[in-house]
Design goal:
Elements: E1 2-4, E2 9-12, E3 16-18, E4 22-24, E5 28-31, E6 38-40, E7 44-46, E8 50-52, E9 58-61, E10 67-70, E11 75-77, E12 79-91, E13 95-97, E14 101-102, E15 105-106, E16 112-129, E17 138-140, E18 148-158, E19 165-167, E20 178-180, E21 188-193
C-alpha cells in the first residue's frame, strides 16, 4: 500500500507498481515530467490531496479483484488503461480522462482511455472522456470489443460529423455497444447509458 500525506509534493521519478491500495490524504502526488507510468492493483482513494498528471503518464488498473476509484471532487487521469483479467473497476464518483500538464502548460490533446480487459462499473456515476471540443480525447481500441466496456453512463465530447463515435457499453453480463454518427450536430458532449 502507498499513503500520501503532508503538505509537500511527492514526485514519481520512475515507473511505479502499487500491489495494494493508493490513498492520497493530503499534499500532491504527481508523475514527473519524464512520462512515468503508474500501475495500481488495489483501490484508489483521494480524500483530500491532489493527483497531478505530468507529461503523458499512464495509470493502469490491473488488479485481479474488484478495484474502486474514489474522490469526492471527481478524479482526473490523462491516460487511463483498464486491463483486468478478473474483477471490475468501480467508480465511487465521476472520473474524467482529460488534458495533462507539463509544468504549467497544458498538454497536446493526446490523452486517451484504453479498454483492454475488464468492466468499468460506473455505479451511478459518469465516466467522462474529454474536457472540451478542442480535446475530445481518444478511445482505444478504435472499435471496442466485449473484452472491456462500461456499465453505466459514458460521456464523450463530439466535434465532428460523419464520424463513428463509439460508446462501449453493457450490463454486468452482456455487451451492448452504441455508435453515434450524425450528418449535422451542435458540438458538445453526449452521454449514453445502456438500460437493461
Amino acid at each position: 500500500h502507498l499513503t500520501v500525506t503532508g503538505t509537500s509534493t511527492k514526485d514519481m521519478v520512475a515507473a511505479l507498481t502499487i500491489d495494494g491500495n493508493l490513498t492520497i490524504s493530503s499534499g500532491t502526488f504527481r508523475t514527473s515530467t519524464a512520462g512515468e507510468n503508474l500501475n495500481i492493483r488495489g483501490n484508489w482513494t483521494n480524500n483530500g490531496g491532489t493527483f497531478r498528471i505530468e507529461d503523458r503518464s499512464r495509470v493502469t488498473f490491473d488488479g485481479t479483484a474488484d478495484q474502486t476509484i474514489a474522490n469526492p471532487s471527481g478524479e482526473s487521469f490523462y491516460r487511463l488503461t483498464i486491463n483486468k483479467i478478473t474483477g471490475t473497476v468501480i467508480l465511487n464518483n465521476n472520473i474524467t480522462v482529460q488534458e495533462g500538464w507539463t509544468g504549467t502548460t497544458a498538454e497536446d490533446g493526446l490523452f486517451d482511455l484504453t479498454l483492454t480487459s475488464g468492466i468499468i462499473n460506473a455505479n451511478g456515476n459518469t465516466l467522462i472522456l474529454g474536457s472540451s471540443l478542442q480535446g475530445p480525447g481518444t478511445l482505444n481500441p478504435a472499435i471496442p470489443t466485449s473484452a472491456s466496456y462500461i456499465r453505466g453512463k459514458f460521456q464523450r465530447w463530439v466535434n465532428a460529423t460523419g464520424t463513428n463515435w463509439q460508446f462501449p457499453l453493457g450490463t454486468a453480463s452482456n455487451y451492448r455497444p452504441a455508435v453515434f454518427n450524425a450528418a449535422a450536430i451542435t458540438n458538445g458532449f453526449l452521454i449514453i447509458e445502456h438500460i437493461g
